[in-house]
């Protein structure tokens, strides 16, 4: 899901348009499955895949909640300037 935000600032001598879009992905699982014995072990799940049905926050690959997966945000900001005519 992409979100776009457009802000138009008008001044006496210039017009500026700024647009921003961000793309959020959930990648490898970071849940420590050996925490209760004092160790560290992850399951190797590389990317979050939403489970089918009504439980969209559980990964279909590893069974963990989406919060255990590392969040990766890609943001792109574009500023355009057009001089007044």
Structure description:
There is one protein chain. This protein is mainly β and 85 residues long. 0% of the residues lie in helices and 44% in strands. The chain has strands at 3-10, 15-29, 69-82. It has a three-stranded antiparallel sheet with strand order 1-2-3, with no helix packed on it. Strand 1 and strand 2 form a beta hairpin. It starts with a strand and ends with a strand. The model has no long low-confidence stretch (mean pLDDT 80).
**Helix/strand-derived class?**
mainly beta
Strand order of the largest sheet: 1-2-3
What fraction of residues sit in β-strands? 35-45%
The largest sheet, given as strand count, sense and whether it forms a barrel, is: 3 strands, antiparallel
Bulk shape = elongated
The tally of beta strands, per DSSP, is 3
The quaternary organization reads as single chain
Mean pLDDT: 80
- Topology order in helix (H) and strand (E) letters: EEE
Helix and strand topology:
Elements: E1 3-10, E2 15-29, E3 69-82
Antiparallel strand pairs: 1-2, 2-3
């Amino acid at each position: 899901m992409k979100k776009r935000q457009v802000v138009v600032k008008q001044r006496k001598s210039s017009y500026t348009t700024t647009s921003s879009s961000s793309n959020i992905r959930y990648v490898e699982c970071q849940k420590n499955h050996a925490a209760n014995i004092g160790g560290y072990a992850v399951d190797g799940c590389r990317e979050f895949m939403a489970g089918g049905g009504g439980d969209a926050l559980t990964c279909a690959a590893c069974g963990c909640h989406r919060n255990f997966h590392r969040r990766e945000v890609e943001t792109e900001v574009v500023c355009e300037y057009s001089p007044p005519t």
